[in-house]
Design a protein that fits this description.
Strand content: 5-15%
Order of helices and strands: HEHEHHEHEEEHEHHEEHH
CATH architecture: 3-Layer(aba) Sandwich
CATH topology: Rossmann fold
Number of strands: 9
CATH class: Alpha Beta
Number of domains: 1
Strand order of the largest sheet: 2-1-3-4-7
Structural class: alpha/beta
Distance between the termini: 58 Å
CATH superfamily: SGNH hydrolase
Oligomer: single chain
Shape: globular
Number of helices: 10
Length: 261
Amino acid sequence: MMKFILSMLAAGVFLAVQGTEQITLALACSSACQTYGNTDSKLIFGWGEVLDEFLDPSVKILNFARSGYSTKTFFERGNWTQLVKAKPNYALLALGANDNPPKKDSTTLDQYRKNLRKQVADCRAAGIKPIFVTLNQSMTYAKNRKDIVFSKQGPFRKDRAPYSQVIREVAKEEGLPCLELFDTQFRYMSAMGEAKCAALYRYDPQKQKLDPSHTNREGARFVAMIIAEQLAKSGSPLASKVKMDKVEAAKKEFLPPPALR
């Protein structure tokens, strides 16, 4: 009888472990996502550092994001090879902020499309499930070059719009989920207003002013919240790992009541 009880207990432990089997999620992105390791919340944080707040603990994040990298340099400098060799279960593909000209390592839209397709092909060959993410928005400097404000188009990166559209198109062609960060962030930031949005951007101690392109810890949480919210709607099996109670709590924290409807 005792052996039977012990065997049942062992089986229960095994099933419990099975039920919480670890899932690995790799992140392919640039500075907006990178891990910086700062402890001062006013300094730069990437959304990859805080995404785990909105995901089940069974999801382990592997952050391959690197500042300044385009799809071109991500391939050329070996970061993509490292990601594929890690064989994560899933990969969020969010590169593109540095692909638009006139940046040094930019790509044409045609080359960008080819690079995204190569990412998909490599993921599938390695048994990785790819999920696309459209690009992030940012603010800009005011005329005094100190304060940060919305551009004439609002919190909208016109230069990133064509690249986000290519992401959508490749995702549709390949039958893959696409998390709509670009449009959702624009809508949410527009509802929040300039002053509240400015508080989401990091203080640059070298320039001794705010940086309109990179987030502090709260800004990183804001972007991670949107990505998690979009992941929950994506139809991916990973959607079940999103902690929607955390997402909804963060939305109430960041957004004015009308935007929550």
